[in-house]
Structures are given as C-alpha cells and as structure tokens.
Amino acid sequence: MITEQKDANLISELNTLVEINNDRVEGYKTALKETEDADLKELFKNMAHDSFGFKNELADEIMKLGGEPTQSTCTSGKVYRAWMDIRAALSNKDRKAILSSCEFGEDAALETYEKVLKSIESPAAFGLISKQKTVLQADHDKIKALRDSAK
User: Fold this and answer.
1) Three-state DSSP class for 68?
2) Burial class for 147, CB neighbours closer than 10 Å (0-12, 13-18, 19+)
3) Alpha-carbon distance 120 to 26, whole Å?
C-alpha cells in the first residue's frame, strides 16, 4: 500500500513536469511562428525539441510505474501566464520583451523542477529530472544572455 501511494505521488509529480514541457513545446512553437529573428527561430526550435524529448522520457518513466502520462498543459499558474505574456510580446515583435517573457517562463519551469526534485525519493526519477533540469538551466541562461544584450 505504501509503495502504491509513493508510486501514485511520483506519477503525479512526473505528470506535472510533462505539463510544463507540453507548455514549453506549445509556447516555443508559437514563438517560432511569430518571430522574424533567425537566431531566435533556431533557439526556439531547439528548446521545443528538448521539451518534446523530455516529455517522452517522463512519459516512459510514468508508464514504467503503471501510470498514464498526461497530454494536457498547465491551465493556471506562473507558466500559463508566462506563455500568455510571450504571445503578447510576440504580437509587438519586441525582441527584448519576447526574451523577457521567455525568461519568466523558464524561471517557472526551473522552479517546478526544483520543487519536484525536493519531493521525490526515486533515484531513477531523480537522475532523469536532474539531467533535464541541467538542460533547462542552460536554456534559461541563453535566454537571459540574449535578453541582456537586446536593445
């Protein structure tokens, strides 16, 4: 019974990360369509690709635990607001505003990853999530550097 509860909690936490990655994929797909800057297009394409892979890795782990991976995105909270801000910034084609909104979204994703890392006990899941968080941190840092250099 205790193991089943632990697995259910882990599945729930992993599905939270699936939602975050679904949000990132959708957000960066939108950003790809809207931006005219070639460097941002390439960056956003790579970030969407990373999150698509992360989502699949997390889904595999969820299925190993006997769970069902979610297909949904977050419909509330910081991440959703961040992507709404990105859409608004994209409509103005303002590079710095786009990057600031992306950074906010990355901050929210990193915060969620950190929260999940603190709450799980599974070594396999911890290793997977830590690896993904490292890539997300690097993506965040790229966005921040680009934002800092934008006029």
Assistant:
1) coil
2) middle
3) 27
